[in-house]
Amino acid sequence: MESIPHPIPRTVEEVFSDFKGRRAGLIKALTTDVEKFYQQCDPEKENLCLYGLPNETWEVNLPVEEVPPELPEPALGINFARDGMQEKDWLSLVAVHSDSWLLAVSFYFGARFGFGKNERKRLFQMINDLPTIFEVVTGSAKQSKDQSAAHNNGSKSKSSGKSSQSGSQAKGVKMSPPPKEEDESGEEEEDDDEQGATCGACGDNYGTDEFWICCDVCERWFHGKCVKITPAKAEHIKQYKCPSCSNKRARV
Fold it and tell me: DSSP 3-state assignment of 52?
């Protein structure tokens, strides 16, 4: 709920400026101001929303009372999910909803002021040139930029660039839990302590609440975070090679 009035954007450039301001505020809430944001999202409170404001600030507040609202509303009740999942997953979920809300607000302005096909296309292209909030929060924005540079340079020695340039294949990306070495019962699969697999990078045991990926060369399992692979990124990988296997190939 925006308590401070802001100028209504009427041109493509003004709508994009509004988008950038709100986006910057939301990114602050989910990164540099994350502790403050986390504290304000108390599950004991009523339905709360995260608002990004055009002046690059943010606020957690109750939804507006008027129906229909003056602007599209953000996701409702983000505070209720806070303690029911890992913090990083909760922040990623809020980031996804925030991206959706930003697009809704921008194209609401476009519809309200009669943007034509070319104006809508130009607005989307301007928005699409920026990383999404989700990409910024999860760190995939920097990875995508690095991989794009590696692709343009024709570099095949970097594991991140190599794996991301491969497309999808049945065996390619093993993202299911590492295989158990003892019993195959469903109950025991839920027990982290009984999983025999360990991460090939950090050595920690498998956890059901973490994303894992398997190297198709050495068939070792890794935490996605340890090898900088996200679930979304893994969907586009044909054959994943861990950093060690990629470096071996580069030296041959």
Answer: strand
Q: Where are the beta strands (DSSP E) in the chain?
A: 49-52, 58-61, 212-214, 221-223
**Tokens linked to 199:** 């991460």
pLDDT, the chain, mean: 80
pTM of the full structure? 0.56
**What are the contacts of 137-145 at 24+ separation with CB within 8 A?**
137/27, 137/30, 137/31, 137/91, 137/92, 137/95, 138/88, 138/92, 138/95, 138/230, 139/228, 140/230, 140/232, 140/233, 143/228, 143/233
Q: Per-residue DSSP letters for 61-114?
A: EPPPSSSS-SS----S-GGGGGGGS-HHHHHHHHHHHHHHHHHHHHHHHHHHTT
Q: Shortest CA distance to 45 belongs to which of 26, 33, 62, 59?
A: 62
Lowest mean pLDDT segment, chosen from 112-116, 193-197, 200-204, 230-234: 193-197
Indicate if the pLDDT at residue 128 is higher than 90: yes
Residues above pLDDT 70, as percent of the chain: 73
Confidence grade of residue 110 (pLDDT, cut at 50, 70, 90): very high
Choose among 237, 221, 136: nearest CA to 176.
221
By C-alpha distance, which of 140, 208, 139, 141 is closest to 176?
208
